[in-house]
Amino acid sequence: MKRVTIHDVARKAGVSVTTVSRVLNDRGYISNEMKEKVLNTIEELNYIPNEMARSFFSNQSKFIALIVPTTENPFFGELTFHVEKALAKFGYHLFICNSLNDSENEEKYLRLLNEKRVDGIIVGSHNVDISEYKNYEDQIVSIERKLTKNIPMVQSDDYNGGRLATQELITQGCTNILCVTGDKNVETPANDRSIGYVDEIEKNNYRKNFIEIPFQIDLDEKLKIIKETFQGDFKYDGVFAGDDVNAKLFLNVAKEMGYDVPKDVKVIGFDGTQSIRYLVPELSTVVQPIENLAYEAVTTLLDLLKGKKVKNEVILPVELYLSETTQGSKK
Amino acid sequence: MKRVTIHDVARKAGVSVTTVSRVLNDRGYISNEMKEKVLNTIEELNYIPNEMARSFFSNQSKFIALIVPTTENPFFGELTFHVEKALAKFGYHLFICNSLNDSENEEKYLRLLNEKRVDGIIVGSHNVDISEYKNYEDQIVSIERKLTKNIPMVQSDDYNGGRLATQELITQGCTNILCVTGDKNVETPANDRSIGYVDEIEKNNYRKNFIEIPFQIDLDEKLKIIKETFQGDFKYDGVFAGDDVNAKLFLNVAKEMGYDVPKDVKVIGFDGTQSIRYLVPELSTVVQPIENLAYEAVTTLLDLLKGKKVKNEVILPVELYLSETTQGSKK
DNA sequence: TTTCATATGTCAACCGGATGACATAAATTT
DNA sequence: AAATTTATGTCATCCGGTTGACATATGAAA
Fold first, then answer.
1. How far is the CA of A29 from the C1' of D25 (A)?
2. Which key words are in the record (chains A, B) (predicted)?
């Protein structure tokens, strides 16, 4: 079935294609009557401009790619939502790429994005050899991930979040605090969370304790790692987990082992997604400003595409959300 | 900065564009030496075909839109992930649309998708006047939502899920079972969950009880509705919630009110997302085959686009996941 | 009266690649 | 030797809309 084109509209309205194009793009001189006549014809024929043709001509796809490990993860699911919303506001559309943190996938996507001529890329994933990104420096912004010196990054104030969380545990009387981190070998601003922890611990002359729970291992393995922390003779009375999922896993294990939270051990997480607040409202956590991260990433990227100077780093404040796992049941 | 085109490649290689195009598309006669020469030149110049031009010419964008309420919701976040994965397998890309269940948004998206010439649409949202979809009947598949007689739908076996859940509660000794539903006025296969519940309850001559928790209201209002169920003199000893979030909210309220789950009241949910299994592993639930739903929706849509005959309805089996909220702590 | 802003039209070129038509040779079969 | 297959080239056209150049005709301002 043939689509209605601008030529059909011109013929039907008895004007030239140029005139129709002028109406559509509000260019040059057009009288009101002419404008109306053309618009009526457009409506009559139900003409819908072919954006593919426009994109092709203008060399702008109006697509922005978002590369995340997976939208399965609530944090990235929420990020995706807010990025899409922000993009829509500025007339851009979202092309979503799930890298699964696999560098091969990520490379394939970069190639694909190049073919598809996406206008820009927002990276929230963690893998490809950074050098790959060098070819795209003028059209990339990253979220919580330092790619190259020149690629702007938007992040939460991870360091301060780590400090706030640790401070809170100390305020609540904890003296033996465990820090649960994700993959330590991946260099990400999320590591600043641990640094915040370390600084607070040192300030109080407490002992530093770490366990690492890699992102990609099985649930059972994760649980095993957590269980081991209950085995030694050294008892923790506070836990700062670098993300909420690990925090919740810790809660589950603690409960199973017969420990009472927050009496025996207090727990605080990091991320504070909607999902967590709905599903695990009892968990105290450091809330990342996901919506703002998305908005800043989008506006920074669009500015960058326009050739404007943009900040190399945007750091957004986090907020402490205190609930039962640090404070006792609030009846 | 000018991009390398097929003409540049042809010139550099000393052949005609037609020949280059033949190599790229594997058409007509090409000797191996020629093929190699062209491919080498392509590599040398780092030529990357402009998919916008191809799409424009072939009139195929290779984009499939997925309309969901919001990827913030874990169910849709996971669905998005699996849809993207399935599409990628067949060379298609995902254009994500968050409708927020708002019909105005949805209409805007439909218009936009028309302009962008997406090849097909997968609908997982619930709003626009169905008539709007009539114009797209030959390029739409829906997930868990009956749109028109002619639009194929892929769904979980909601009815059976409702029966299984209710049966399980009855098996565990419950006699006064409450059914928590989402919006009842929205016509969706998810309503079959309640029908499954009703049929099992009637079979056993128990009393039917319903509360409705609209999707879009505030958390506090939801909690209020749930709290009220504890107020009357009629006590429930079992709860079947139409989705896991409501099930968890119920658990939270029950705990706050001093009830013991599963001793005083047993609870079973619906959806069984990854998130829930990680964050609320204690919740018994009916697991939807999200990955299969996505895969079936994608393959059905692609078949439809190819003009093949497709099934009008695909119903995929659900699975019961039993945990502590129906069975007592499994130490 | 002359200039100028307004209003429209025609025409052609362009964006980058795909494709069909047609010509020409060499290599391979019949 | 004739017919066919294989291998390349040239050329023009198309996809649908945008844009610049240029012509023409008003009506208004200088």
1. 14
2. DNA-binding, Repressor, Transcription, Transcription regulation
